[in-house]
Amino acid sequence: MEQGNLYFIKDSFYERFKNCGLLENKEIINGKPHGRPCCYLFKFDKNDSYIYWMIPISSKVNKYKLQYDHSIQKYGMCDNISFGYVLGEKRAFLPQNLFPVTKEYIDNIYIDKNTNEPIMLSRNLLSELNRKARKKIRYNQQGKILGMTDIMKIYNELLNDINKDTN
Questions:
Q1: Tens-place pLDDT, residues 132-151
Q2: Which of 95-133 are b and which e, b meaning 16 or more Cβ less than 10 Å from the residue's Cβ?
Q3: Which of 34, 57, 72, 85 gets the highest tally of CB atoms within 10 A of its CB?
Q4: Are 144 and 152 in contact (CB under 8 A)?
């Protein structure tokens, strides 16, 4: 798993943590159900080889643009949503819905069918997403609930799993 790549998460993860505020929809694209929300993989702690953080991506740009604009108007900033391009299409990146996973819940990498290579995001977008993700994770670690997902509940359960497996 490499930071900066886009991945899909297995259904078993969403089933296990269904009461934690995760995005659950499978979008319909060109009349066909698409995989779980595609996510940007982020490493919060480079020394932690077990936990990966995922930022969901949505094609519902107009919906999230309204929320983004409201936040900018009210607070002068928005740490919940970013916008960028995936395969030439504008997408909403949702740090407000970030969540931790372990490798057994990562299904597959998002590959560009034209090049057979992993999808790449711009450096500016990566930097922005990393900054917003770090802020959200730190706040939640301090007990301040910031975001839509109960990331500390998921994180602690995953740590318990890891500790059982390594002992």
A1: 999 999 988 888 776 678 88
A2: bbbbbbbbeebbeebbeeeeeeeebebeeebbebbbebb
A3: 57
A4: no
